[in-house]
Hints:
four-stranded mixed β-sheet, alpha+beta
Amino acid sequence: MTTTQRTPETEAPKPAAGQGAGAAGASGPAQVSEAQARAVAESARETTWRRPSFGKELFSGRLRLDLLHPWPTEDPAAAERYETFAGRLHEFLTTQVDGAQIERDAQIPDQVFQGLAELGAFGMKIDEKYGGVGLSHLHYARALTLVGSANPAVGALLSAHQSIGVPQPLKLFGTDEQRQTFLPRLAAGEVSAFLLTEPDVGSDPARLSTTAQPLPDGSGYLLNGVKLWATNGTVATLLVVMAQVPPGEGNRGGISAFVVEGDAAGITVERRNAFMGLRGLENSVTRFHDVFVPKENLIGGEGQGLRIALTTLNTGRLSLPAHCVGAGKYSLAVARQWAQERVQWGRPVAEHEAIGKKLAFIAASTYGMSAMLDLSCLLADDDHNDIRIEAALVKLYSSELAWQVGDELVQVRGGRGYETADSLAARGERPIATEQLLRDLRINRIFEGSTEIMHLLIAREAVDVHLSVAGDLIDPKAGLGRKARAAGRAALFYARWLPGLLVGRGQLPGGYAEFGPLARHLRWAERRSRRLARATFRGMARWQGRLERKQAFLARLVEIGAELYAVTAACVRARAERETRPESTALADTFCWQARRRTDAHFAALWRNTDASDRELARAVTEGRFEFLEAGILPPAGDGAWVAGWEPGEAVVDDLRRRPLPAAADRASD
Length: 670
């Protein structure tokens, strides 16, 4: 394997005629049909279920409590290892990380990078045999929660590096040689980044236009293209890059994943992007021009890139809820202390029902998110369950709920919630950064799959049982023979499946009695899981192949499933804490009542909604029929492109790469 970092003075192999940047063709992504785009996404799905999945069973109408209860136990050795590490991490964050300074400067100082490297924080999720700390999923999430409370941008730095950057794909798909080569470097403090998105390619990977052209001598590939929104892109020395390999003789081709040296010749960081929150985020626009990548740096095989990315996210998504749980804990601490201290109309505001309801929402939501995340992490650590649906649900659910929690905290704080921490401090008040919390939280509904994309991703898994037995029956392209065979399979399947949705444990007055006062919530969840499956079947029967376009309907199904998973997690956790922390029952009970109201609203909206009129109105809006509503204001500023294009070739701007850590050789000599 080639491991030498390439510098601008190191010449890469030259492409043959017709290869390299000139072969990239016109700039921008290829135009593909909707069917082609769906085919690419579908081909990357993991279609088999080799291990049990609570989420899969839930959407099929079966509340498999046995997969979650009793609450999984932590490995004592792993817990001890975390406590030792967490003590050092807590000390470092308290004494060496100034979150207010990072917010003001919009940059994480070099000494913070260096301190994190010395702690081993860049190797929290890397196995000890490669020099990492070797934390479990559970303890890694707790470490990120702690880091995020110091500054969310630092948390994003570490999670993007380990959850979706080079370490996780190599752990799952890398060769022994790749792991031995790269993981020790990453554990020691080198930073990694994941590069998939392009200026005009987001959640539609079929249009990916970055290319990796195989070289004639078989030594490697030449990488050409531009990547957008690469978190850690300005500071990373190792990159995971997704690129299209053209098919050819001896090459399967397709979207492929590569480990790329961040200092290789031909790489230019052209921009450092700035955002409304996470001001310390090192996020880049990165150009590749004839960048040589040795063949040994291909992860998996050609055409496996998108599958690698999606599989990596199965557990990688658990890092984002850790930040959401941290935000909930912070919001609860601030709201509790403020509501006790602030007096209005002769009483602390906590005693006023309007504020008390908000406190209850913040506390209950934090408990629910925490239970959901911890349970998902423990299931991932146990490695006996397929958690692809659970991880997606907790990402979706916590990102939305944490945003509501942050918004309620601003309201509890009133004008001080809208005021910046520096302004508060200048008046001699506590510098509580509530407005920053809200800004930082907003990206979570977009990061690692937007809420809308998560709805579709989870919904695809939710209806998989139906597509597997009736796919040809609802496929307009299927011939009569295929439809007839599908009809036979469907008749046999539904003759067994549908009766099972009529009765269940949730209808027994004594069902789940071991959960005490929380049993009523599990009985409700069991009944609602069967109702969810019936609603899904009804939607399939009503719209058949058109169901994929009923995105609002599918979103509500997913939201119901998320609430049912959250309710179950909260009840199971409270049951496990009954002896050691009996007050958890009250938290779980309130959370469940709140979740039940949200769920019933989603069920009601499945069939009584404004979806059809909304679609018609949206069409009229885009046709310009309501432009009169825009009169009376100044037009939106600027006349640039809505989506900037790019041209292949060498960079024409300065390179903005930043290296906050000394080079590996310099660190070794120190």
